[in-house]
Specification:
This protein is an alpha+beta fold and 148 residues long. The radius of gyration is 18 Å and the shape is elongated. The chain has one domain. The strands form two sheets. It has a four-stranded antiparallel sheet with strand order 3-2-1-6. The chain has a two-stranded parallel ribbon with strand order 4-5.
Length: 148
């Protein structure tokens, strides 16, 4: 009886392909939720769980919910890991080079610097949702959120 070989991801594959794909998917695939609350938010963003809001009071101020954001990122990470384990099980050979790893991480870091760090002073952070909301409409929105 032939022993089935388990496929695993090397550290280079994880650094060069899986994590950047998860970060880019997390940043570029989002859903816009139109919500109603008891005097709160008009729109929330995130997929599959909304984790960032528009706040009525000030421009460029957003409330970021950390637990739904972490769960969303873990879902993207598991999908990326599953994709690359499948690719490796089909025999697809992925080449890694230190320069492409560095270049990939510079690109991903620049996107996140633009999205979060540029407006970090204006954001407020909370662990969970601080009020109940009802989703009235939802639509997919490609690109960085919620800066429309």
């Amino acid at each position: 009886m032939e022993k089935k070989r388990l496929h695993y991801l090397s550290g280079r594959t994880l650094l060069q392909y899986v994590l950047p794909l998860a970060f880019l998917s997390f940043a570029l695939i989002t859903q816009r939720f139109h919500v109603t609350t008891d005097g709160g938010y008009s729109r929330m963003y995130g997929f599959p769980f909304p984790y960032i809001t528009e706040t009525w009071v000030t421009t460029f101020h957003h409330t970021v919910y950390l637990l739904p954001m972490l769960v969303d990122f873990l879902i993207y990470l598991l999908i990326a890991i599953g994709m690359f384990v499948f690719f490796q099980s089909t025999g697809l050979a992925l080449r890694s080079h230190w320069f492409t790893i560095v270049l990939t991480w510079v690109a991903v870091s620049a996107l996140y610097a633009y999205q979060f760090l540029l407006f970090a002073d204006y954001n407020s952070y909370s662990f969970l949702y601080d009020m109940d909301f009802t989703t009235t409409d939802a639509s997919f929105k490609p690109g960085p959120y919620p800066y429309e």
